[in-house]
Amino acid sequence: MSATLQNLVNQPYKHGFVTSIESDVAPKGLNADTIRMISAKKKEPEWLLEFRLKSYEAWLKMEEPTWPNVHYPKIDFQEISYYSAPKQKPKLKSMDEVDPELLRTFEKLGVPLHERMALAGVAVDVIFDSVSVATTYKDKLAEVGIIFCSMSEAVQDHPELVQKYLGTVIPSTDNFYAALNSAVFTDGSFCYIPKGVKCPMDLSTYFRINTEESGQFERTLIVAEEGASVSYLEGCTAPAFSSNQLHAAVVELVALDNADIKYSTVQNWYAGDEKGVGGIYNFVTKRGLAKGVNSRISWTQVETGSAITWKYPSCVLLGDNSVGEFYSVAVTNHYQQADTGTKMIHIGKNTRSTIVSKGISAGHSNNSYRGLVKVAPSATGARNYSQCDSMLVGHHSGAHTFPYIQVANNCSQVEHEASTSKIGEDQLFYFAQRGIDAEAAVSMIINGFCKDVFQQLPMEFAVEATALLSFKLEGSVG
Amino acid sequence: MSTSDTVNAGYLESLLAGRPHVPASPLAWLNTLRSEAVDRVGVLTVPTQRDEEWRFTDISQLNRMSFHPVRTTVDLQAEEAGRFRIEEAASRLVFVDGVYAPHLSIIDTDNGVSVVNLEAGLAANAVALESCLGRYAEFRNEVFSALNTAFLQDAALVVVPQDVSVSAPVHLLFIATQKDVASYPRCLLLAGSGSVVTVIEDYVSLQEDAYFTNAVTEIVLAENARVNHIRVQREGMKAVHIANGAVSLARASNYQSVSVAFGARISRYNLNVRLAEEAECAVDGLALIAGRQLADTHTCIDHAKPHAMSHQLHKCIVGGGAHAVFNGKIMVRQGAQRTDSRQSSRNLLLTNKAHVDTKPQLEIFADDVKCTHGATIGQLDSEEVFYLQSRGLSETVARNMLTYAFGAEIIERIPVPSLKSLLEQTVLDQTTVQP
After folding, report:
1. Membrane-spanning residues where (chain A) (predicted)?
2. pTM greater than 0.90 (yes/no)
3. Which of B56, B303, B332, B362 to mutate: most A Cβ within 10 Å?
4. What is the DSSP string of A266-305?
5. What does the alpha-carbon distance between residue B311 and residue B343 come to, in Å, rounded to a whole number?
6. Is residue B322 domain-resident?
């Protein structure tokens, strides 16, 4: 049985192809001039250039972090090109104007843009490498006063909002990769939900790294004003390249009084081949600030791709009664490495947080959960519940948990639970008895294992994630 | 980095300064071991909070304290040591400030167990000790272990021959009597195959000033051996207590340990347990601290081979402005299939200045294993308090009772009745808040 199953798990990356669109690529290397060049190309205001240069200064003084439980050859930051934009006429009003080749790419990825628009009512802000090509449903959103555009547009059209919030949740000196991103970010999404507005549809962005050797540095900023609510979806795929690509994104969320932000990610970037050659380095800093009272920030992630994943979507629960949530499924196979988890920083009174993390490791991969629950002395009545379960598939994989729990007052409750399990022969036998083959059985078991997280995903994503997981792991058990 | 959070570079040299007093041994390997350790002390530095293993434990206060090795031994009267007597113990070795005190020790030779100071042990069987002493407690990368090994002279040596089973516990008593003294207690326990023994490692103080205890304990279990290890740390309230324990379990051996920490201003206990096939261990701990105390327990249970089992329950009761740290690592190596491991960290915070950092950590490289861990930090359950109140108890009494019960769960696992009741009384006294 195991041989057939092994074949299934070793399916090649089906999204591996390169779209040949001419790219406007900056020369390799990073210095203050590169940053000035990026800033000038994007016609940015003076304050943003200063922000970038300051971040660059800070970055120069920082050292690459070595504490994550991941191993990779040292990255030469001077070997990366920091800017690449498809040579396209920007500002497209309708889908018909989009380069047909680009559309075909998304078709292959299984992201039928128009279908999505029509059926799901999802506005997709398409990011192709670093420049926004098409933004849909913008008018409909504009009606209720929601600003949903690319970061470059936001800088041009709403500089006051960007200036007010950019870097407030993740200061440019936060960590090595956040500083690098702050210095060189090219584009990303910006979303602003005004006071009292409930966003009428799920907002979504598809990222795709295209040009070989070009690191991508997105910057996403979502602000929900008092009483506003939004659900944001992010999905990723990347073509198969043999040399490693660096991806260091920064995502900042700000929720004011009674606001609610839900951020969902499905990440399926190229993970390298079965020998561990190539693949994306995904070093992401994501943090939400629950600034106002009764605000809520919820992260849901399904991490299946990337050679190395290194991300900790965090919640800073500053407002009283604010809520932080983290639901994660991380799947690693072959030689993939994932070090992911969350940080819940309780500062306000009666703040609550929930962490549900499911890690599945197969092949020679290593999957680590690293989390921090910190309850400050001021966070009276804080409550946390964490659960992190691991599933190991095969004899060569590793699962690790590093939960840090720090409590500094006596009226908080913190609970942490973890378990490790495997798919047992007896379980498979039970399925076989009922006429379900191993392949379908494994898929069912895995989906059952991840159910708590998938339930949190928006409908379309849940379907995609289920398929993705089955495709990634089917058959690695036997 | 500011000098406030680091320990001065010269600090280790100052601790080593008294080492010339350690007389050379006639045994070349022992001298080599010591000098190797001295070399390592020269290379290593005192850990700071920037080291992951010491992240929550601030020992920068060492800067403000200076310690020297014991210069003159105190001639302790039998009755002074007598107050720490444990009635069940047939043999007792007493070390005053780390120095062996033969006149206070009682050695029972009838039951077949050899309980002696290192010197006598070396005279009897140096060859057997060469392969054990200093071979289990890692000192090449652990500066405090290295310091202890550098000063290695007197040590409690317990050797249980094959198939010998002793019911009376062995009491190893370490008494601190002098201010500003750094003492280096050392224990080595060799349990032969099929043997059964209970050992009590007991750290006490006769004075309340600052001193430094840097202990190392090595326990080696041969096949099918069974060791009960009770570790009681009731040092003076200004003491610094740093201890390293290394336990090696051969096939199908069983190690049961209860470690209790009440004393010391700063205490740190590193325990490494390595399990072979079918070995079992239960590693339980209780830290009961208040005031400005800091109690840190770091354990690493290494499932190196398949079919081993480990259970761990660690509890902290933290009052005043005290700070408790727990880091429990469970390592399941590749091929260590059918491992069964359970770990639980329970913490009770009594005041709003108390502080707990806990990190139950799992590292698993085998797929057919059962590993769970859990951690909770909280207060007494209000429903439990209410239940007792509904039975006519006052709130204070109800809280005292529940706090006591929380700690007593660990104490109850101690298989020595007199020590158990003594420690239960200590827990009761410390957790009782007067109405």
Report:
1. none
2. no
3. B362
4. EEE-----TT--S-EEEEEEEEEEE-STT-EEEEEEEE--
5. 6
6. no
Of the three residues B237, B253, B276, the one that is the final residue of a domain is B276
Q: Is residue B352 part of a domain?
A: no
Neighboring chain B residues of A412 at a CB cutoff of 8 Å: 377-378
Element (H, E) at A370: strand A366-375
User: Does residue B370 form part of some domain?
Assistant: no
Coil, strand or helix at B292: coil
User: Domain check: are B65 and B195 in the same one?
Assistant: yes
**How many Cα atoms occupy the beta-carbon half-sphere of A442 within 13 Å?**
27
CA dihedral B381, B385, B387, B388 (to 10 degrees): 140
The reported pLDDT for the residue numbered A164 is: 92
pLDDT on residue A79? 77
Cβ separation of A415 and B366 shorter than 8 Å?
A: no
Among B222, B224, B267, B278, smallest CA distance to B247 is for B222
Range of the domain at B432: 381-435
Give the nearest partner residue to B355 out of A408, A417, A419, using CB atoms: A408
Mark out the alpha helices in B313-416 (DSSP H runs): 382-390, 395-411
Which residues from chain A sit within 8 angstroms of residue B289, using beta carbons? Answer: none
Q: Do B378 and A412 touch (CB under 8 A)?
A: yes
Interface check A67 vs B, CB under 8 A:
yes
Q: Does A420 contact B at CB distance below 8 Å?
A: yes
Mutation site, A337, A349, A410, A473, interface B, largest B CB count within 10 A: A410
| Interface contact A405-B374, CB threshold 8 A | no
**Residue B358, in any domain of the structure:** no
Interfacial residues of B (vs A; Cβ cutoff 8 Å): 52, 56, 334-335, 347, 349-379
The answer to whether B361 contacts A396, with C-beta atoms less than 8 Å apart, is no
CA distances from A135 to A138, A174, A323 (A): 6, 31, 31
Task: Look at residues B252, B276, B300 and tell me which one is the last residue of a structural domain.
Answer: B276
Mean pLDDT per block of 10 residues along chain B (435 residues) reads 54 79 83 91 88 88 84 83 90 93 88 90 86 90 92 93 93 94 94 96 93 96 96 95 96 96 94 95 95 95 94 94 94 90 93 90 87 89 92 92 93 94 90 73
Please provide the distance, in angstroms rounded to a whole number, between the alpha carbons at the two ends of chain A: 6
- The DSSP element (H or E) to which A123 belongs, if any, is strand A123-128
Instruction: Tell me the chain A residues in contact with residue B317 when contact means C-beta distances shorter than 8 Å.
Output: none
Residue with tokens 């009674």: A258
Residues B150 and B22 in one domain: yes
3-class secondary-structure state, position A215: coil
What token pair was written down for A253? 């969320």
pLDDT tens-digit profile of A373-388? 999 999 999 999 999 8
B355 contacts A406? CB cut-off 8 A: yes
Q: How many domains does chain B have?
A: 2
Kindly state the tokens that stand for A462: 């849940």
Q: Is the separation of the CB atoms in A438 and A430 below 8 Å?
A: no
For B328-359, b where at least 16 C-beta lie within 10 A, e where not — what string?
A: bbbbbbeebbebebbbbbbbbbbeebbbbbbb
The closest CB to that of B372, out of A392, A393, A418, belongs to A418
Q: Which residue of B has its CA nearest to A397?
A: B365
Residues from chain A that touch B353, judged by Cβ atoms under 8 A, are: 377
H-run or E-run covering B171: strand B170-176
Contact A420/B359, CB-based, under 8 Å?
no
Question: At residue A58, what is the residue type?
Answer: A
Residue A256 and residue A290 in contact, taking contact as beta carbons nearer than 8 Å: no
**Residue B268 has which token pair?**
């740190």
Q: How far is B349 from chain A (nearest CA, A)?
A: 5
* Structure ipTM over 0.90, yes or no: no
